[in-house]
Specification:
Blueprint: H1 9-35, E1 55-63, E2 66-74, E3 78-86, E4 93-102, E5 108-115, E6 118-123, E7 131-134, E8 141-150, E9 153-161
Antiparallel strand pairs: 1-2, 2-9, 3-8, 4-7, 4-9, 5-6, 5-8
Length: about 160
């Protein structure tokens, strides 16, 4: 009689090692996110902004250069971002039509335009008419267009470069 051995032992050990390494990486990411280390939350940064909060969104579309964002509520400081393109900075401007139905005292909705070292903020919380902001201080190319949500609710926006 020949003794039967486990011929898949190497695969089982490799699977266990892989699971342990995966759990270590996941734990490191969770600790990093919880402490804020390694997670960019600076809205004026030229890098991608990471949110540690939540948003209750109705819709978020970017079609034919028009960014339409419709949300119910979000965590304080939540930032929603869309990258757009400037073709002729000297003649183009960003156009923002924003309405907020629920604005508790002290709440704001801020539009950020960020490109390289240049960042500009525009308070769009209580607009009576759409705002138009010249892009002449920026360069042709990609620009980060961000909405920083600070307590406003039931907001609808349409933002584009024209």
């Amino acid at each position: 009689m020949v003794k039967q051995g486990t011929h898949h032992l190497k695969l089982i050990v490799a699977g266990i090692v892989s699971m342990v390494l995966m759990l270590i990486c996941l734990t490191g990411f969770i600790v990093s996110a919880a402490t804020g280390n390694g997670v960019n939350t600076d809205v004026a940064s030229n890098e991608r902004v990471w949110n540690l909060g939540t948003i209750s969104m109705n819709s978020n579309t970017y079609l034919d250069g028009i960014w339409k964002l419709d949300f119910r509520s979000a965590s304080d400081g939540f930032v929603e971002e869309q990258n757009m393109k400037i073709d002729d900075a000297d003649s183009q401007s960003v156009y923002a039509d924003v309405s907020c139905k629920t604005v508790p005292e002290g709440a704001t909705l801020v539009l950020w335009l960020v490109q390289g070292d240049i960042s500009r903020s525009i308070d769009v919380t209580d607009l009576s008419e759409p705002v138009e902001y010249s892009l002449s201080e920026f360069q042709n190319g990609k620009i980060h267009v961000r909405l920083q949500i600070n307590g406003v609710e039931d907001a609808v926006s349409e933002i584009y470069i024209r």
